[in-house]
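Case 374 in the screening queue. Each case pairs one protein sequence with one candidate compound; here the compound is alpha-D-galactopyranose. For every case the pipeline is the same: read the inputs, emit a complex structure as tokens, and attach any notable structural observations.

Predict complex for case 374.
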Amino acid sequence: MRIFTLILLVTLTLGSCKERILKSAILPSDFHQTIGGKQAKLFTLTNKNGIEMSVTNYGGRIVSLMVPDRSGRLEDIVLGYDKLDDYINSNEQYFGAAIGRYGNRIAKGSFKLDNLQYNLAINNPPNSLHGGAKGFSSKIWDATQNGENELELTLVSPDMEEGYPGELKVMIIYRLTDKNEVAIFYSASTSKSTVLNLTNHSYFNLHGAGNGDILDHILWLNANKYTPVDANLIPTGNLDPVTGTPFDFTTPIAVGARINDNTEQLNFGKGYDHNFVLNKKEDEKVSMAASVYDPISGRFMEVFTNEPGIQFYCGNFLKGKEVGKKHKQYNFRSALCLETQHFPDSPNHSEFPSVVLKPGEIYSSACLYRFSVK
Ligand code: GLA
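Case 374 output:
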């Protein structure tokens, strides 16, 4: 009898120590770390179709996303690392991350609001990029998992953090729906007038992260115009028609079809790194912004948003130095980002849709990536 009790106890103890094995093969314990008194963790969301997504509250990052191909084979289609330390020490700071307070560049890190001048960190000389030196992508967010398929992240950003005015209360909800959608909802409120532009910086490769480049991905962008940039990737202020340029994705075409054309805009971006002005019907709130199709795997991704723009960036700064999940190298143009957003440098362009958030107002933004096969 005693021996039986002992065996039972040992079995139960070992069982409870055994770590959940994720389809992505990532070990959640590799994300457990206390940073600045806060606990970083890995959360796993699942849906009824077997899609699995893992998110860490370090930077609100989507760490893995297991999506089926046409034969039902799951593959992890976002770039990233399998350990928290690798995220912290990476040269590429934005894999999968929540970006804030301001997605993309603010020229020379300065802007005026209500006649006051604000100065931000110049972390991408000569500009400020993605919220500055320590943006939302490197914060430990408070996290609550709601059931199998939803994670709620919250953060209070103090007044003048990274040079931005107003105490900001931010919430992000990641939801993995049974329609195979990754839905991201952002909301925020501020104590003083401020500027805000939140987005997510997932790097997608529909062949699977680390499995070659994305030049064969067929892209469609619901945008008749884009915002051309200067040599420092700051919008000139013009909204130029895409017609007759390599920026015309209004008919689906391979990302690589014209990427090496010798045009000033492609040279400035070292490829595509541009904001597109989304076509919207009057009063249209959430609308379809983009789609990407991988003819090899059959994976198809559609993007929906209420934002006026989308940054299409195709990994021009990846150089194979990053060794990611499963020891795979992330080479030049081995992923693409479709970051729903307001336009870059809007605080310095009164002609662009406003990014000002005032006390009493609620910021609200949505981005939805829907997956299927063709
Ligand atoms: C954005 C920018 C790019 C680059 C990446 C991160 O998409 O537009 O220029 O900085 O982020 O490397």
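Case 374 observations:
- Residues 92, 94, 104, 129, 233, 273, 311, 313, 317, 337 surround alpha-D-galactopyranose (CB under 6 Å).
- The first helix runs from residue 2 to 17.
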